[in-house]
Amino acid sequence: MDTCILVSALRSNQGASYKLLSLIDNKKIKLNLSVPLVLEYESAAKRMVDELKLTNLDIDDIIDYLCKIGKHHQVHYLWRPNLNDPGDDFILELAVEANCDYIITHNIRDFTGSEKFSIKVISPREFLKVIGEIL
Fold this sequence. Notes:
Layout: H1 3-11, H2 16-22, E1 32-33, H3 35-47, H4 49-52, H5 56-69, E2 71-72, H6 89-97, E3 102-104, E4 120-122, H7 124-130
Parallel strand pairs: 1-2, 3-4
Helix pairs in contact: 1-2, 1-3, 2-7, 3-5
């Protein structure tokens, strides 16, 4: 799950990103995490804390919960550069390490190149359709 999905879900309780986040502990969804991804989640959310109408403690609680339910991975092999945005390579590397079927993002074009690793890049709405949780 790309950081933009978490941020979108925190901004609004409407839409596919929020629905996806609300289902994250569902057995149909496996959240794969790495230290760089968790740090990016935290940094992005805390930069927007005023806009989100949350406190830093609220963000910490959300991140702690994601860390509790997510599967943790150490990425030992870097596949860089591979994507249009080098800042997203660590997400692809995590997806490869975790043997993911999907990367879920709003920025699909940023992940052009993921197909070389047989990883599909889809929107939250598309993913919800795949798992039978259509909005």
